[in-house]
Amino acid sequence: MNKRQTRSFAIGSTAVAALVFLGLTVDSHRQFPELTNADSITPAVTRGMDIWHANNCINCHTLFGEGAYYAPDLTKITQLRGAPYLKAFMKEPERFYDEQRHRRLMPNPDLEEGEIDDLIAFLDWVSNVDNQGWPPRPILVTGSSIPGTGLTIAQQDLSAGGQLPPGARPVSGSEDPIALGEALFRTASPACNACHSIAPGVNLAGPTLADLATRARQVIESPDYQGEADSVEAFIRESIVSPSAYLHPGAMYSTAGVSFMPTNYAEALSAEEIDQLVQYLASFK
Length: 285
Hints:
By secondary structure, this protein is mainly α. It is built from twelve helices and four strands.
């Protein structure tokens, strides 16, 4: 290849690369409205964004992987925690975490009721943006360890496959209802393991499920129980579809007689899927 051919090749390849780049840029801008969920930007979302910036939330939290890494990434927080939980948390974060045990405590932002609603609207808009899987996983921050494992809660949640709780039998085969229930435990929307641990003594946003079957039987036999379940399986099903039928003791799990657990599982899951999830959770002896 002589000098003229080399020059022509360089100019031609540069021009082709520039055209490809421009084409991709134009296509990206074409998709921005849909990818960013722009049609859902309401005045409440805009006000919530202003509150987010005014309180410097990004100094501790991240959105889309951008920000500080002191506290959890909140990109998908409204898909992992319902509005009642988030509202109660923002009102009194000290109810949910202990500074001595967790080694950090979110300061109370002293927001008005309307400001909290706007901030949740902003975070909900963020959670529905098509971020194409970025960041690759939520950034979990905790100082609590799981007794007897040497793992932090974050490490246990992200470990490959996790561990079955004591008493739960190992399963294999995609047709086993307990195996299917275990898969739902990790993939339902919101995922059950986003709030519940299966490690004994490890309470997250929801209580541990390590010995659920035993505790369910005790609750049903208690004179204080006002629900309609008459078996462990019925109690677990009731807890999934009507979470406020029985309120687990602890101020961080409910407020004003309403559970923080999402109420959409009866619609989001089929009857068969709920049965599979019940069978999996009922194996937690």
